[in-house]
Design brief:
Number of strands: 10
Low-confidence stretches: none
Mean pLDDT: 94
Helix content: 25-40%
Order of helices and strands: EEHEHEHEHEHHEHEHHHEHHEH
Number of helices: 13
Largest sheet: 6 strands, mixed
């Protein structure tokens, strides 16, 4: 299988407004893993889709929220590899005629994926997993083809290896030698799970911080431990669990999953203006916003003062419409727009 990931993403200093003077903040640009596949999801998909192809599957089924980065990356990479894809997307709007064409969904639709809208309150373990299994059975019975289901965010024992491999990049980039802490957004648990187990196994002693964009720390630790169990982790490392390898911060989710506060949106705008780096409102915006807040209010949570933030992508969620009012706000830095009609009358320079 051809490589999907553009590896060895760069690390550089990140001058985010509000970082305390005694901290140094850097960023690993995993938003640069490859244009349409931008972000952390494609790193897991390299392993998951390789597994699907090795098992002779012709169809991929996965799930997520209506603006799921994972679902978008899965369907695009699936089409690149000649696989059919079906997405189960949670939505408050269940009328197909009113389905959005914005953000990630625009890309889902452009590649011709099959989208199945499901209730927004559907729970993975209690409902969505069963829907996926029922759909796999239907494909087998009616089409005579094998389907492969991928859980939300690509988080399972196979998906973990996406960030086990990434940790090898971090070792090449001498991250354990030059940093004290790593911070990352947590949406399903696979990224922080792979980082944490690799950090433990390499004895690098970095402190790993997970900024939760939804749900609870208890839930994510449980999901990571399930994935580790699939690797016989407890037999090889008795007594060591996710709770021992990383920190989880529930406060980072703010109003809740995919719900933005004005402060968070203003922060995204300020970071873009100051550094030219785009954060998204669902994952990285919330994570970075809370990271800076922790640096100011709870510096004791960090092992040291040199922190690496892993940018997990998600830029396409910026185009779901929620930033529109922010960028149009009168007098704001994002509303520097005028009409130059008269050739000889030069606009005012502010």
């Amino acid at each position: 299988m051809d490589s999907l990931v553009h590896p060895d993403t760069p690390i550089h200093r990140w001058y985010v407004p509000g970082v305390p003077e005694d901290f140094e903040l850097y960023i690993k640009r995993d938003d640069m893993t490859g244009s349409q596949l931008s972000g952390n999801k494609v790193r897991k998909l390299e392993f998951l889709l390789a597994d699907a192809i090795s098992k002779g599957c012709s169809t991929i089924i996965t799930c997520g929220g209506i603006q799921s980065n994972h679902s978008r990356a899965t369907t695009i990479s699936g089409h690149q590899l000649g696989l059919k894809t079906h997405l189960l997307l949670k939505s408050t709007e269940l009328d197909p005629e009113k389905a959005t064409c914005k953000g990630n969904v625009l890309l889902d639709r452009l590649v011709g994926t099959h989208i199945h809208l499901i209730p927004g309150d559907a729970v993975y373990n209690e409902d969505i997993h069963q829907r996926m299994e029922n759909f796999k059975k239907k494909i087998s019975e009616e089409k005579g083809e094998k389907a492969y289901s991928i859980p939300c965010g690509g988080t399972n024992s196979i998906g973990l290896f996406g960030y086990v491999q990434t940790f090898q990049e971090l070792l090449k980039q001498k991250v354990p030698d030059n940093f004290t802490d790593i911070a990352v957004a947590v949406g399903s648990g696979g990224t922080i799970g792979g980082l944490s187990m690799s950090n433990y196994l390499s004895n690098s002693h970095l402190r790993i911080h997970g900024m939760l964009v939804g749900d609870t720390g208890e839930y994510f630790h449980s999901e990571i431990n399930k994935a580790l169990d699939g690797l016989n982790w407890s037999q090889k490392h008795p007594g060591v669990q996710s709770q021992d390898m990383c920190e989880m911060y529930e406060e980072a989710q703010g109003r809740g999953y995919a719900l933005s506060s004005p402060d968070e949106l203003e922060f995204i705008s300020a970071v873009a203006e100051a550094t030219g780096i785009l954060l998204d409102p669902v994952y990285t915006g919330k994570a970075a916003f809370h990271l800076i807040k922790m640096m100011k209010e709870k510096p004791e949570c960090f092992k040291g003062k040199k922190v690496l933030f892993i940018h997990t992508g998600g830029m396409f969620a910026l185009f779901d419409g929620r930033m529109d009012d922010m960028v149009r706000m009168k007098g704001s830095l994002t509303n520097r727009i005028d009409a130059w009609i008269d050739v000889d009358k030069v606009p005012e320079i502010n």
